[in-house]
Each structure stands twice: as structure tokens, then as C-alpha cells.
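Input sequence (166 aa), recorded before submission:
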Amino acid sequence: MPIEKIEQPQIIEIDDTLRLRRYDGKFDFAFEWYQDTETVYLVDGVKEPYTFGKLRGMYEYLNEHGELYFIEAGENGDYKPIGDVTFWQNDMPIVIGDKNYRGKHIGRKVILALIERGKKLGYKKLYVDEIYDYNIASRKCFESAGFRAFEMTEKGNRFVLEIDKL
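Predicted structure, C-alpha cell format:
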């Protein structure tokens, strides 16, 4: 029996200072994140900054395949984008683009919120297509949320979370 499609929310509130905002086609502010070769290396395994066209293509692809959100940090009701995440059952690519917000457990909070979204959608399992071996922070982040490596890839591992066993 197919699961009834649940509309992608405009906003997912995570806590008083963190939320996910549905992609609205505007992404100029994110270009700076993908100019940083360290960030691009963690995401793509290469140190070549994105062109604006590549960034547009990436967001179009992600938006077509899953629920694309910007991660926003707020203070006094004023929010600013600090990263992006796409959610679908087969992958959950996440980037904290603003380096000032890395290492603050934001990624884990985002992942936990999206696990709850997966439960609402009736998913039994969630997957991460690949985390490179050298992206230790990402690996630890997903593992702390309950994901486990289940298959080796050329550069790392695929991960799975069995929601129905939580």
C-alpha cells in the first residue's frame, strides 16, 4: 500500500535558534560556501570551487530528488542561512557552509529532526549514500544519530539507520 504523500513543510523548527527553511529557488548567498576548497573537498572529494552554474545545477537536482532545505541559525527572531540539507530516504547530504557554525552539534540536531520527518513519512530505514573516510566529523555526526556503516565504497562507506528499530 503506497504511503500518502505528506507535503514538504515550509519551516521545520528544530529549537529556539535553529530551523530548516524550504528551498525557494534563491541561493546566491550559498555561493560563498562552495568557493571554499576545504568545504568542497568534504562534499565532493575534489578541491575545485563551484561555478555559479554548478551550484544552480546541484540545487535543482537536489530539489527534484528530495526535500531541500537551508539550515538557518537565528537570534532574536532574525534567521540567516548557514548551510543546506536535502532529505530523501536514500540520502541526506548536509553542509554547514558557514564555518563559524561547525563543531556546534548543529548537524546532529538537523539529522535528528529529519529522522522524525522520516518517521512521519512512514520510512523504515534511512540511508546516507556515502561519507568519505577522511570526513571524520560527518561520520561521527551520523553515527551519533544512530546511523551505522553497512557497505564500503571507493572512498568511504554507505550508512543506514533502521528507524523501525529505534
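Checked by second reader. The two ends are 23 Å apart (CA to CA).
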